[in-house]
């Protein structure tokens, strides 16, 4: 009884009024606090991209550990919340929870272009940063671009331009016919459009093309079709474990048409093994790059996990380093301030390569050098990791980095929409 | 598309059916006798593939083909003794939960011991390359794989239909209570059947290791296909599973043959859907007293 009488209408208004004022004032109080900086790491741990996601997770852990061991960012420790993004719907739900419940400073990760799009839509509503570390689709940098999404990962056009140069030099384009296998989801469709446009520009034609379900592990039917079509080149727009399945079964069926393509991850070459891996492929980074920082990263990763990092590991490690630099420079985790910093062409980042990278303010793509790797014959491989050699950085030193994103498909980007 | 290529795809699908069979028959066998829906079947498939990688440096490829299924079968019998026995008479839901958990434990254990990155596994040079049957090109390795699959399934059929062991197992599938009344204990038979079923999953994993990516979650993909085959074939029917496996392969080949490869996986589920709609107990499913 006494309780109820002491808590009358006036008392209620007083208390809730004070509480409401407190909540309004909270953001400034929170910003001043020295609590940990929470990062949401969201990437596939399962499914056909799962094996790549595992590298992403390992690298994110390594980056966080290193930053914290060195005293954190301006004295604040990094804390990582890791989740399996599973599929576009789940990815969006989990992103929403990270923003709403965990109050993350940024979301880092993703490999699937389809999931990256739903995460981007969520972060745009929640005004939180998203650093894409693995989704390549040009559309994410074009019609589907978002102000809060930045791309540490290369975009498809960069792969098409780099691999295209190699194929042109090898005489595999003009007047030649390609058999194209494409992963049947956003990334593949986007890459296929880019590859088609490239072939048209350069006088090649398509001998046959198939969309391959992402879950497919049996490629025997495609082997029969490829052989019947007798192409000059088998061009792959595949992703994840599809690439390994293809290599293994291409070797199994003893086919020997040249193979090349635009989508690639070194982990998939390692999984195919030196017996099956062949051709020349574009990649954003590989463990053979001869710079001090690349070799230091490779050593730290190998010491911790017992195997060299692959390009997906580089992506997530790099993204956390880039974000840490932005938080230091802007003295906080305010998304608007970091966006402004990233969009400044003067903001340069050490990409572990020969040239520094910077974000293209028009589509938020991190412009950087890329590489091509070429399979070595089985007899020359020194171990199970060094089954390829890396090229010098692309483009050539006298070419601007912008040449890599020329002729991108996927529409034009407008952040106001 | 030419008629020849269409026929090639059909034939390729038919041959695909044999390794669907290898994976599905063990699942069907364990379910028929003990009523356990083994959701860990795919996980044992993965164990088979990883064991192949671990053993091949010591035993060679062909040694592994013999040893891996035996070891996985042994594991299966241990799992049967420790876990399955408690659930034979229980609601099937409990065994579903049990084997679902077991599948996750095995997958994580593989991730722990071998890492999450897919591993390479080479096939002997002897089996690499193409063979021609007339104009039809096929892989030498798959001829080997299918031969082993057919031998294993034929041996299983002989065991079930031409031996005293098989008579008791078949009686147990039909009516375990009467078998008990006749003074025959089904327990040791249940162990051996679980061992055979799971051993076949291990054999399938070992044989697929050279041609698919070997990673800890590789079993889940396979499990779904095996389930579809068992459901289409019908419970408790040996020939039902054989027929269903081949049918699934041919339907997949047909869909690719008419140039709709992106529909090839969906077509299998569509087939299951149709069969369940028109004939709920499967193509050759028997009426089993315990389940009706």
Task: Describe the protein's architecture and organization.
Chain A: It holds the Pfam family Peripla_BP_6. Chain A: Belongs to the leucine-binding protein family. Chain A: This is ABC transporter substrate-binding protein. The complex is a heterodimer of chains A (417) and B (292). Chain A is an alpha/beta fold and 417 residues long. Chain A is built from 13 helices and 14 strands. The longest helix of chain A is centred in the N-terminal third of the chain and has 24 residues, at 9-32. Chain A is globular and about 65 Å long. In chain A, strands 2-1-3-4-5 form a five-stranded parallel beta sheet, sandwiched between helices. Chain A is 43% helix and 15% strand. Chain A starts with a helix and ends in a 27-residue tail after the last strand. In chain B, α2 crosses α3, α8 packs across α9 and α9 crosses α10 (264-278). With 292 residues, chain B is an all-alpha fold. Chain B has ten helices and two strands, in the order αααββααααααα. In chain B, β1 (130-133) and β2 (136-139) form a beta hairpin. A two-stranded antiparallel sheet of chain B has the order 1-2. Chain A binds chain B through residues 46-47, 50-51, 54-55, 184, 210-213, 215-218, 220-225, 227-228, 241, 244-245, 248-249, 251-255, 267-268, 270-276, 305-307, 310, 384, and chain B through 2, 4-5, 8-9, 12-13, 16, 111, 115-123, 128-130, 137-142, 210-215, 217, 221, 252-253, 256, 261-262, 264-265.
């Amino acid at each position: 009884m006494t309780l109820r009488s002491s808590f009358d209408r006036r008392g209620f208004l007083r208390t809730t009024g004070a509480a409401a004022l407190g909540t309004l004032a909270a953001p400034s109080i929170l910003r001043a606090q020295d609590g940990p900086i929470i990062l949401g790491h969201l990437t596939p741990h399962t499914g056909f991209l799962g094996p790549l996601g595992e590298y992403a997770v390992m690298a994110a852990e390594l980056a966080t550990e290193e930053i914290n061991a060195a005293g954190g960012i301006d004295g604040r420790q990094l804390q990582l919340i890791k989740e399996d993004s599973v599929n576009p719907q789940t990815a969006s739900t989990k992103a929403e929870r990270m923003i709403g419940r965990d109050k993350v400073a940024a979301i880092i990760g993703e490999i699937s272009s389809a999931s990256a799009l739903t995460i981007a839509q969520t972060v745009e509503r929640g005004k939180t940063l998203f650093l894409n570390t693995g989704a390549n689709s040009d559309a994410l940098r074009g019609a589907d671009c978002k102000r809060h999404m930045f791309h540490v990962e290369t975009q498809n056009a960069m792969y098409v331009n780099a691999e295209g140069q190699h194929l042109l030099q090898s005489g595999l384009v003009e007047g030649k016919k390609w058999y194209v296998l494409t992963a049947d989801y956003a990334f593949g469709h986007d890459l296929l459009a880019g590859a088609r446009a490239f072939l048209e520009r350069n006088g090649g034609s398509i001998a046959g093309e198939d969309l391959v379900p992402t879950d497919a592990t049996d490629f025997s039917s495609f082997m029969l079709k490829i052989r019947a079509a007798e192409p000059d080149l088998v061009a792959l727009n595949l992703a994840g474990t599809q690439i390994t399945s293809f290599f293994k079964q291409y070797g199994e069926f003893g086919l020997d048409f040249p193979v090349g393509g635009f989508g690639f991850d070194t982990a998939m070459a390692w999984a195919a093994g030196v017996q099956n891996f062949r051709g020349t492929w574009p990649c954003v980074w590989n463990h053979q790059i001869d710079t001090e920082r690349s070799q230091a990263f490779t050593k730290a990763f190998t010491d911790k996990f017992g195997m060299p990092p692959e390009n997906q590991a580089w992506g997530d490690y790099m993204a956390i380093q880039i974000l840490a630099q932005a938080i230091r420079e802007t003295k906080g985790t305010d998304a608007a301030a970091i966006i402004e910093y990233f969009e400044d062409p003067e903001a340069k980042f050490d990409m572990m390569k020969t040239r520094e990278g910077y974000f293209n303010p028009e589509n938020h793509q991190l412009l950087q050098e890329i590489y091509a790797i070429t399979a070595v014959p089985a007899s020359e491989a020194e171990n199970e990791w060094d089954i390829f050699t890396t090229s010098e950085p692309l483009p050539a030193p006298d070419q601007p980095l912008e040449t890599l994103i020329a002729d991108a498909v996927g529409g034009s980007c407008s952040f106001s929409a | 598309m030419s008629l020849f290529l269409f026929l090639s795809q059909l034939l390729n699908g038919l041959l695909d059916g044999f390794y669907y069979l290898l994976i599905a028959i063990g699942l069907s066998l364990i379910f028929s006798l003990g009523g356990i829906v083994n959701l860990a079947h795919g996980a044992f498939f993965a164990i088979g593939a990883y064991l192949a990688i671990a053993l091949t440096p010591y035993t060679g490829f062909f040694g592994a083909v013999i040893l891996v299924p035996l070891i996985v079968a042994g594991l299966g019998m241990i799992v049967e003794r420790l876990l399955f026995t408690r659930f034979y008479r229980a609601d099937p839901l409990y065994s579903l939960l049990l084997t679902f958990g077991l599948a996750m434990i095995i997958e994580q254990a593989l991730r722990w011991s071998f890492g999450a990155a897919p591993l390479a596994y080479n096939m002997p040079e002897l089996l690499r390359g193409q063979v021609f049957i007339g104009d039809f090109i096929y892989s030498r390795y798959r001829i080997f794989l299918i031969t082993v699959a057919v031998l294993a399934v034929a041996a299983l059929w002989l065991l079930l239909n031409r031996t005293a062991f098989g008579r008791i197992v078949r009686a147990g599938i039909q009516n375990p209570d009467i078998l008990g009344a006749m003074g025959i204990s089904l327990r040791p038979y249940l162990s051996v059947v679980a061992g055979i079923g799971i051993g076949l999953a291990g054999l399938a994993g070992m044989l697929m290791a050279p041609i698919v990516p070997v990673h800890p979650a590789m079993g889940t993909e396979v499990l779904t296909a095996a389930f579809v085959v068992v459901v289409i074939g019908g419970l408790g029917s040996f020939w039902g599973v054989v027929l269903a496996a081949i049918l699934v392969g041919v339907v997949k080949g047909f869909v690719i043959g008419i140039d709709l490869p992106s529909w090839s996986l969906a077509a299998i589920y569509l087939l299951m859907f149709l069969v369940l709609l028109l004939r709920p107990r499967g193509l050759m499913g028997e009426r089993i007293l315990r389940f009706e």
